[in-house]
Amino acid sequence: MSTLLDVKNLGISFGGLRAVNDFDLKIQKEELYGLIGPNGAGKTTVFNLLTGVYKPDSGKVLLDGKDLTGKKNIEISKAGIARTFQNIRLFKELTVLDNVKVGLHNHHHYSTIEGILRLPNYRKVEKEMNEKAMELLKVFDLEKFASYKAANLPYGQQRKLEIARALATDPKLLLLDEPAAGMNPNETGELMDMIRFVRDEFHMTILLIEHDMKLVSGICEELTVLNFGEVLAQGKTTDVLNDPQVIKAYLGE
Ligand SMILES: Nc1ncnc2c1ncn2[C@@H]1O[C@H](COP(=O)(O)OP(=O)(O)OP(=O)(O)O)[C@@H](O)[C@H]1O
């Protein structure tokens, strides 16, 4: 096993509030890792720090040994971190297929002139992108909805589409922010199978924020618990979930 994500001493304050403090995290390649904790503990802020939405005021973020600390969102995306959001952020007026193609644009290029004039390189790249996007949709059982407007998909399918779009950027690390939010138990069960499938088939490393403890205990191999912006516990899932401090601060709520 080798380390993919290495975060040391990460921190940020908003005015007088220390939202994340002295945060350390190591994730191995192809690991399924969970970040849990009470509301307002700082979990989404950690994602925002890892993806360049916020600049940390202390600490370091290394991805595969590359220093991404303080880099812009677009540079971090190119370096290989992709994410989904707590509140789904799809291009609702675009088709399901086009939503995935937006993700693919990170890697496929044609010039503006080639695009406007529909030159051969544009047509070749478009064809490749359509094929790749359809392959990704198949993985998520969404190919039959390819021509639907994203807004017309049921909620659970929209969440899947967000994951497909994030994967289209060909990331090394996939961050999922509450992927099971708003799902019923059946949908959550399917989602768990799908996350495992993505890890196994794409050899993906996944860090997820989740409140659904069935999902967390069912698929995460390691956990970090945040509380008031600080790491309360870290380690193997069963050890962390049996830690009396974690039960008191979070699970016993
Ligand atoms: N841009 C910001 N400006 C000011 N305060 C912020 C900002 N972003 C986050 N915070 C504060 O930082 C703290 C951590 O918020 P964060 O959203 O990271 O928590 P969370 O653990 O993701 O919570 P939840 O489980 O409810 O999503 C909260 O007190 C929040 O109000």
UniProtKB/TrEMBL annotation:
Its EC number is 3.6.3.-. It comes from the Bacteria. It is an enzyme of class 3 (hydrolase). One of its GO terms (molecular function) is ATP binding. The keyword Hydrolase applies. Pfam families: ABC_tran, BCA_ABC_TP_C. InterPro entries: AAA+_ATPase, ABC_AA/LPS_Transport, ABC_transporter-like_ATP-bd, BCA_ABC_TP_C, P-loop_NTPase. GO terms for cellular component: plasma membrane. Keywords: ATP-binding, Hydrolase, Nucleotide-binding, Transport. GO terms for biological process: D-alanine transmembrane transport; L-alanine transport; L-isoleucine import across plasma membrane; L-valine import across plasma membrane. Residues 5-253 form the ABC transporter domain. This is Lipopolysaccharide export system ATP-binding protein LptB.
